[in-house]
Specification:
The protein has 311 residues and is mainly β. 6% of the residues lie in helices and 32% in strands.
């Protein structure tokens, strides 16, 4: 029995037309064809057709639950449609969607939702690790979402190719990480699996650990569906084959860059590039374009009057 009703996306207001540089082919990948539980198996369930996945954290599984893709991918466009726990208190409960490999010097690209207290805005964190750089320095950014992600499903997309990583929310670009000179192995380059997990991040997630998980207020339930357009890696070969799918190069239009700037100006609350306790010299991409927390002008409506999918 699933606890939620599926709603693919929500339109929050109608300020602009946006033709994204990625066009989502919303063909949901069934769970049994692409995924498998990795922990908390009794709390990983799916609908009869496999297109909706539900994971939870409760008194049976206080450590949470999660699943991973059966295949690794070497670049692609990966979209998770996610609905977060709608409890009035879910502090410390981290729900995530990410790409990762299990090598010692691992790569990782993250979306993480950092728990919630009723009346406060939800906080989304993105992060990028390459070649084990998470052992020394992450590339975290945090944003307050201008909608309630516990009320409906929203699209969260990672575009990853050899030149850049772009994070999208409801097809709006919110962050770009370019593979600039000097970044070297810090840019993710090895095949990775997809993951969906929910877990206890009490020590750091919500107001730096001030508010912790209260398992008595569970169950904390997160719903997922997935759209995958990636270069699947054959485990039997040591070097990935040439990709048999078209991976977008991710070059954004001027309108998309304006909207990304607007989102980052209004919604971003932290960027590693602006952390005075961390050396910018360690992050060569920070010198390319300062993603500083500065208010940008809101995008202007265009004449067609069509609606945006995001803000």
């Amino acid at each position: 029995m699933l606890y939620f009703t599926y709603v693919q996306l929500i339109i929050l207001c109608t300020i602009a037309t946006l033709k994204p540089s990625i066009a989502l082919n919303l063909s949901i990948v069934p769970f049994n064809e692409a995924f498998a539980p990795i922990y908390g198996n009794q709390s990983v369930v799916h609908s009869d057709d496999g297109k909706l996945i539900q994971i939870s954290m409760d008194q049976r599984t206080p450590y949470g639950s999660g699943f991973t893709s059966q295949y690794a991918y070497n670049h692609g466009v990966f979209t998770a449609l996610i609905k977060l726990p709608n409890n009035t208190y879910s502090a410390g409960v981290v729900a995530s969607f990410y790409l990762q490999n299990k090598e010692l010097m691992r790569d990782e690209i993250d979306f993480e939702f950092l728990g919630h207290i009723d009346g406060e805005k939800w906080v989304l964190q993105t992060n990028v690790y390459g070649n084990g750089s998470n052992q020394h320095r992450g590339r975290e950014e945090r944003y307050t979402l201008p909608f309630d992600p516990s009320q409906d499903f929203h699209n969260y997309t990672i575009l990853w190719n050899t030149g850049r990583i772009i994070f999208y929310v409801d097809e709006w670009p919110i962050r770009e990480v370019e593979n600039v000179n000097g970044m070297g192995g810090d840019f993710p380059s090895k095949p990775m699996h997809l993951y969906g997990t929910i877990w206890d991040g009490s020590d750091w997630a919500t107001y730096k650990g001030k508010y912790r998980v209260d398992i008595q207020r569970g169950p904390f339930v997160t719903g997922y569906s997935f759209v995958i357009n990636g270069c699947r890696v054959d485990k039997s070969v040591s070097v990935p084959d040439e990709c048999d799918v078209a991976i977008p190069i991710g070059l954004m239009t001027s309108d998309e860059r304006l909207r990304m700037k607007w989102f980052r100006g209004w919604c971003m609350t932290y960027s590693y590039c602006n952390d005075k306790d961390r050396s910018r010299d360690s992050f060569p991409e920070c010198g390319v374009e300062d993603p500083g927390i500065q208010l940008a002008p809101a995008p202007q409506p265009v004449s067609s009057g069509a609606s945006s999918r995001f803000i």
